[in-house]
Amino acid sequence: MKRDPRLYLWDVREAADAIKSFIDTKSFEMYANDSMMHSAVERQLEIIGEALNQLSQVAPELAARIIDTPRAVALRNRLIHGYFVVDHALVWSIVNDDLPSLQATVTALLDEGISR
User: E strands within 12-102?
Assistant: First the structure.
């Protein structure tokens, strides 16, 4: 049984919300020096990338409406396979500069009541 594509969007939104709560009121220095915080943020970014990767397979037309899909999947792969060289400044930039746009896009799609 295939999973409803909206559930992948929901996963992305929930992971983005979690990241926002993790970094709210934090500075880059606090983030960079807290291994638990970057582990938590990176895990949620992995979830976002995997959810969008799965969405691309079950509903490619829907995934195509999210311009950040290829970058999110690439980041997920980098975090998982290149875990030993994660650039904390890059991750910090992504969660502060790019994640809000992705979150807004996904929320708008969910608000549209997307169906297959």
Answer: none
